[in-house]
Amino acid sequence: MILYKLVARGILGIAMILCHAINSIWILTCYIQALFAYEQACQRLDWLYDRMVLFIYYLEKILLKNRFIVR
What we know:
- Helix content is about 90%, strand content about 0%.
- It is built from 1 helix and no strands.
- It is rod-shaped.
- The chain starts with a helix and ends in a 6-residue tail after the last helix.
């Protein structure tokens, strides 16, 4: 009877260790996916910022050409 309890505890311990390892791997993969998503968002924001700067530059050029604003 004691042997069965020890085997059961051993199996339960191994199952808990495996469950913890799988959970840790899952958390790590979620973290890595979040890092990739953050990197992509930063790249998109950089692209958007570049487009905004170009838009403002050309808008200023057009307005200066048509004398709507004076430097």
